[in-house]
Amino acid sequence: MQNPPLNEILIGDCREVMKTLPENYISACITDPPYNYEFIGHKWDNSEIQRRIEKVSGKGNKTLVKNIPYGSGLAGGVRNKKWYQRNRHNILDYEKWCFEWGEQLFRICKPGATVLVFNSTRTVAHVQVSLENAGFYARDMLVYKRSSGIPKGVNIKQQLEKKGYEQPEKWDGWHSCLRNEWEAICVLQKPLSNNYLETLLEYGTGLFYAKEQFGGFQSNILEGIQRDKTEDFNVHCTVKPISLMRKLVEIFVPRLENSILIDPFTGSGTTLLAAKELGINYVGVEIVPDYLEIINKRLDGISGLQGMLPLSE
């Protein structure tokens, strides 16, 4: 490739788009791919979002828009052998898909490049193993602690009451899940070039900025992050807070002239906004063409910073 992309958004399936990028080109990756329950049916676009909204319309539970789609065979029903087989096949399909894009990501990353991938507490292990199979080395698991969480499982006391069983109060407080108020971010790394110093000097990669604002050491639990008010034109339904993405870029992407951050699942572009704010070069990949206008509109409102750190030749 004569002129590899820089500060651009590429439209298409990232498994194919990343094949067009040169080897050892990318310094870091921060991305939020579809989770495995969104992956069912291999469809996650505006039409699917609208279908889910219409399905739950009037039921007072819009959270279902972001979760297991109706008609997937995993949204409910009898937990029989067939249900668990479907669930297992979904997991295997998801791991295969993660390996496919992870394999291309590994090729284009520089040695020492850090990769951060958001996922749910139930699916993050599958992502980590898939990317390890692609060649990456597991480094950590970050906790993004949200401000609230909504129980989505079965309240067994209510079900017993509805069916007329005696003494349902004995099961008061028993539920099929806990209130989930954190998301996982698995941290992986392409193997170093011998050691951290050599990798830093040759590629500008490999290290984390661990100094906190008031002099402490950065924890792997990220909390106290406020959610943003979504712009009216941004129809994406899983937008991460800009302050969260800015924090991740600050920790995991050295501000060097040759640093390039990629987000293979750009969505509405929050990761790229954080990169531009901090003066980091970026490449975005997005499979839904309709999001390109939203991304560019958001990027146009960011001026960016100057003054990168020098790196010895």
UniProtKB/TrEMBL annotation:
UniProt KW keywords: Methyltransferase, Transferase
GO biological process: methylation
Pfam families: N6_N4_Mtase
Domain DNA methylase N-4/N-6: 27-297
E.C. code: 2.1.1.-
SUPFAM superfamilies cross-referenced by the UniProt entry: S-adenosyl-L-methionine-dependent methyltransferases (SSF53335)
GO molecular function, one term: N-methyltransferase activity
Enzyme class: transferase
Domain of life: Bacteria
InterPro entries in the cross-refs: DNA_methylase_N4/N6, RM_Methyltransferase, SAM-dependent_MTases_sf
Homology family: Belongs to the N(4)/N(6)-methyltransferase family.
Protein name per UniProt: Methyltransferase
Organism ancestry: Bacteria, Bacillati, Cyanobacteriota, Cyanophyceae, Chroococcidiopsidales
